Amino acid sequence: MEWRVIKYAEYDAAFNMAIDEAILENCMCGGCAPTIRFYGWKQPSITIGRLQRDYKAPYGWSGSIVRRPTGGRAVYHGSDLTFSVVVEAELLGSPIAESYRIVGEAAAEALRSLGVPAEFIRRRTPSASMRGIDDCFKLSTEYELEAGGIKVLGSAQMRRAGYVLQQNSLAPAAGIDWPPKEKIADAITYALSKKIGADFRPANFLPNEMTRAEELVRIKYGCDEWNAHCINPENMTKAQVE
User: Fold this and answer.
1) Which one of the listed residues 27, 29, 32, 136 is annotated catalytic?
2) Domain that holds residue 143
């Protein structure tokens, strides 16, 4: 099966979330192949989980705070390599844990091939201890990665109509020689292609994806209704029309 790879580039936080959702919608409609996209951030940003409530930014924070379409906790973005995977769920691993495992294994193999001693996190945070923790990288969950005892991969998903969007953040660990982002991206692409038996071809955003992403920035990811209160203005509009 053929996938497309969208090479590393940096955008603002609202666009990064909007284009991931636009790709998901396009994939669901059969308008594009399964997609892996690598990206960074034009300026330091924080993304929070879709259902995360009452998040308080660090003291003095003046950067963007955007709510993701996926779940999980807050992630600080700056020097991290972020990548998203969009595919029909059964092609990646229909059980949620299985898809996390496949992507996590590919990322671990990629990092190890570049000299980073990555492995699955051994000590997971007990469920009872998770309450009150806002920061994704202060939690340890199944199939996320650590290197030198420090968490380096956090992941979150959303599923819609049998398709999955998984967003992943790879953050450099202090004291470890971290390869360039483009090298990590290439290594992850190679490892995932071998793991799932797919061909990965470089590609760009499609025009309809760009148009939809710009719309989503305007009506959702650039709006306080969504970012602060988890109210989707698009759903409100549809309800009013109906």
Assistant:
1) 136
2) 2-241
